[in-house]
Amino acid sequence: MPPFVRNVSSKVLCLLFCLLVLAPDSAIAEAPVVETPDAVQKKLDNGEVVVDMENIGKTRFVTGRVLIDQPPDKVWPIMVNPFEFQQKISPRMKTCEVVVDKLQKSILKVTMDTFPIPDVTYLVESDYTRTDGGARIDFHRIGGTLKDFKGHWVMNPAHNGKKTELVYSMYLDPGFYVPQWIVRFGVKQELPRTLIALRKRVEEVVANNSALEKKTILAATPLHKHHVAF
């Protein structure tokens, strides 16, 4: 799973707690916003995070899209490394245990501080796949506190390979009764903040010469060092 999903899931659970107390009984209608590709691209080029929803089968995912001013090989080692998030991007991540560590697969046991509700601990399995010029991650929950979450992350070169476009989709079921519109609202509120924090961390490493976290996983090996045929 992309590490920032862990950041989103913890913040969403806290937000859900507040919404369940403060939100009215009637659901807020989710009116779809249809934008042209040119309008979306303009927002990305202006540094905005574009948040939307998409249906995959019978499941409705929240999606996020962001543009980072660095090529994919600079973004990948930070985006995939959970310890980058624990130290720099997601202060709510209390512990991260690597259960399975392979170039194309990982299983992580993560504990998040979700105050004011009890800590959340869960297992997530991720599959890492090279694509034409980019990469893809598919993740899903296999155990732990959360009832279900799943999704994917697509990373593609943009602007002739000088930048990176990231597209992320996630479905979350916290395991207690709450309307899905509230869950999606929580994800949509927190997703942009996490993506912006990720982009900031990439710039710190590349532009400001900050050191990468030494602790990492095999999947976070820089893309150009992969010698495995995907």
What would you say this structure looks like, in words?
This protein has about 230 residues and is of the alpha+beta class. The chain is built from 5 helices and 8 strands; from the N terminus they run ααββααββββββα. The longest helix is centred in the C-terminal third of the chain and has 27 residues, at about 180-205. It has helices spanning about 5-20, 35-45, 70-80, 80-90, 180-205; strands spanning about 50-55, 60-70, 95-100, 105-110, 120-130, 135-145, 150-160, 165-175. An 8-stranded antiparallel sheet has the order 1-2-8-7-6-5-4-3, with helices on both faces. The two termini are about 20 Å apart. The chain has a single domain (about 5-25, about 35-220), classed as Alpha-D-Glucose-1,6-Bisphosphate, Chain A, domain 4, CATH 3.30.530. The radius of gyration is 17 Å and the shape is globular. Helix content is about 30%, strand content about 35%.
Give a quick summary of the entry.
This protein is an alpha+beta fold and 230 residues long. 32% of the residues lie in helices and 33% in strands. It has one domain (3-24, 37-221): START domain (Alpha-D-Glucose-1,6-Bisphosphate, Chain A, domain 4, 2-Layer Sandwich), CATH 3.30.530.
